Amino acid sequence: MTDNEDRANDEAADPVVGLLLAAGGGRRLGGRPKALLEHRGQPLVEHAVAALRAAGCARVHVVLGARADDVRARAALDGCVLVDNPEWEQGIGSSLRAGLASLAGTRSGTRAGAALVSLVDQPGIGAPAMARVRSGYRDERSLVSAAYAGVRGHPVLLGAAHWAGVAATATGDRGARAYLREHEAEIALVECGDVARPYDIDTEADLVHLEP
Predict the structure, then answer these.
(1) Are 136 and 189 in contact (CB under 8 A)?
(2) C-alpha closest to that of 101 among 80, 120, 83
(3) Residues 6 or more apart from 101 whose CB is under 8 A from it?
(4) Predicted model pTM
(5) pLDDT digits (tens, 9 = 90+) for 57-90
(6) Number of alpha carbons in the 13 Å side-chain half-sphere of residue 128
(7) Most distant pair of Cα atoms in the chain: their distance
(8) Using one digit for the tens of pLDDT, what is the confidence trace for 84-137?
(9) What dihedral angle (degrees, nearest 10) is formed by the CA atoms of 12, 190, 82, 92?
(10) What SS3 state is found at 175?
């Protein structure tokens, strides 16, 4: 069997690929990259990758930016596709564009039916919530989002048919928000408030959420 045939079989068996955005520099955390913050004895980036895999994503792409070399050296990311975002300082929109480009095949040669997008600074959102959102995948037109008390949050599943539109509107720190707002009627909301806590690790005060 050729490598291309192996890849085609992998994609057929696992159309939803995890996409972890982990490029942030932690500006309000004294310049500490969020990917390397410790939680339960491991860097946040490792914690998030493990959650995506436990949720059923055999393939995971990780977008790196701030101190990418240190993240590569200190975090165990074996088996992940690591995507460098040299424009990470422009905001999460640039990381989302880089990640979707890698999934579309312009960087890695792979193709997926959908991306399950997760943020490295939300350790309270684990595998149970990710699996619920992932289970909403139907085809490349799928749009699925976690909800907390009815309010849309992360993770978000973006079917491949939406990637170009998302990338075209993902600027600054907005990510996919503008595109999702325009396509609100198409989004399947999955309540996750009973299994996840959607806090962000943005400031020194938020570090209380991290566990030894």
Answers:
(1) no
(2) 83
(3) 83, 107, 167
(4) 0.92
(5) 999 999 999 999 999 999 999 999 999 999 999 9
(6) 9
(7) 53
(8) 999 999 999 999 999 999 998 644 445 799 999 999 999 999 999 999 999 999
(9) 140
(10) coil
